[in-house]
Design brief:
Rossmann fold; single chain; eight-stranded mixed sheet; two-stranded antiparallel ribbon; alpha/beta; 281 residues
Length: 281
């Protein structure tokens, strides 16, 4: 990826293909799977045979109140609503809302008196989310096409902002966190699940477009990720949950030496999902 525009185009293309493919099959195809043990080939979303197989560890949503199967494309790396402290009547904004998975879960919590707004930059995802909402008939759920670095929302409108495995795909993360801060009401907070790194990724892996769209190669070091949150103005930042995300050893060997691959596979350093909260005073 040479610049931010190229990165966004790759992400938009891949996730647009996921939305279209999900309408043609019973399951999703990239960035997730029916279980943590099943590798998903990004080539099913239009990549070449040289694209990688990889695993993203999606959390189990099916037993949550408000769960909508057609909105669950297994694209997440956590469950931000679990730690978001959403209340009845809240206004919640979901960044990178996809087909609406976290939006509909949040809607079940805020009830009729609240509101949930989904933001996504992929037209195909917005269209799918709106179709899902039309079936449900919710009048206090909205989906807007837009980018996280420049959200089409007013200042100070959200009690809670959530996001699931999306911010790591945003090239300008400082602007993304700044925009989050802008739309959150004083006294409000965010809760996001995202991918971070501990230890450097080899250059070949970090430059892979397929891995970038797969929520891995766009990730920051955990310490840098938390630093950008603090610089945006958030306080009382806390990691609520952390888990390692395992890539198959054969995949790792495509991008690094066998010795490096063994270190990553051991869990000494590598790719992690964190769920983090922060507050706007």
């Amino acid at each position: 990826m040479d610049n931010e525009k190229q990165i966004k185009e790759v992400v938009k293309e891949k996730y647009g293909q996921i939305a279209v493919q999900s309408d043609k099959s019973s399951g999703s195809c990239c960035c997730g799977g029916d279980s943590v043990s099943s590798p998903i080939n990004i080539s099913c979303c239009g990549g070449s045979s040289d694209d990688v197989n990889y695993i993203i560890m999606s959390d189990e949503y099916t037993k949550l109140q408000g769960y909508v199967a057609d909105a669950d494309l297994n694209l997440g790396c956590g469950m931000p609503t679990q730690f978001a402290a959403i209340k009845e009547g809240d206004t919640v904004v979901d960044l990178g809302s996809g087909a609406g998975n976290d939006v509909f879960v949040a809607r079940s919590i805020v009830g009729e008196s609240g509101k949930v707004i989904g933001i996504d930059m992929t037209p195909e995802m917005i269209a799918k989310a709106n179709r899902n909402n039309e079936k449900l008939g919710f009048t206090n759920v909205e989906f807007h096409l837009g980018e996280i670095e420049e959200m089409p929302l007013d200042n100070d409108i959200a009690d809670v902002v959530v996001s699931n495995c999306v911010l790591n795909l945003v090239p300008d993360k400082e602007k993304a966190f700044s925009e989050m801060y802008r739309i959150i009401k004083p006294g409000g907070h965010f809760c996001v699940s995202d991918i971070v790194l501990k230890g450097e990724l080899p250059e070949a892996l970090s430059k892979s477009a397929a891995m970038y769209a797969g929520c891995v190669a766009g990730a920051l070091q955990q310490v840098d990720y938390l630093d950008k949150i603090a610089k945006a103005g958030f306080t009382d930042v806390e990691i609520k949950k952390s888990k390692i995300i395992e890539l198959p050893l054969e995949t790792l060997k495509k991008y690094m030496s066998e010795e490096e691959a063994m270190v990553y596979a051991s869990g000494e350093k590598g790719i992690f999902s964190i769920t983090v909260v922060g507050y706007k005073k």
